[in-house]
Amino acid sequence: MVHNFSSLLLVFLLFIAPTYAIPIEQVSSICNQSKKPSFCFALLNSKPKANLVSLTQYTIDTTRTNVTNTIKLINSLIAQSVNDPKAKNHYKSCLEHFKGALYNVDYTQELLKKGDYQGVNVAASSIQTNVDDCISGESPTDPPYHDPSMLPKYASIIELVVEIILIISNSLLR
Question: Could you tell me the domains of the chain?
Fold first, then answer.
């Protein structure tokens, strides 16, 4: 009897699951709002049969991984910059900004679990601010540091992923 119930439950879930997945039109709508739709499509299509909440979770997890890897890169850049005080100061500042970004990733996660989609949007915006402050400087009068390392590329990928979180969280608010 338990086996029959399990089989019936599995069949039921197989029929229900696709109804919770977002339609391709909605993925298109989300990605067409992004700066790089092809990047967005590649990221979101790597999580098939997901709903908006699980896609948000997935993009938060992707952001966490990217921020963590960027922190590792920054630590390496600090170690390599012993003879360049300007570079070392820049990377130390970036390290603080990316630690702040990681905190905001965790906070975004917490708000998603609570169903606070407006809060998710605000916290994700804070991630972008942290990343942008590292790359562009904290003030419009700060000249951006000419960074030949991979840090700007890592940062741009994080910004693209966070942009998707922002777009999806706006969709969740509707």
Answer: 23-173 (1.20.140.40)
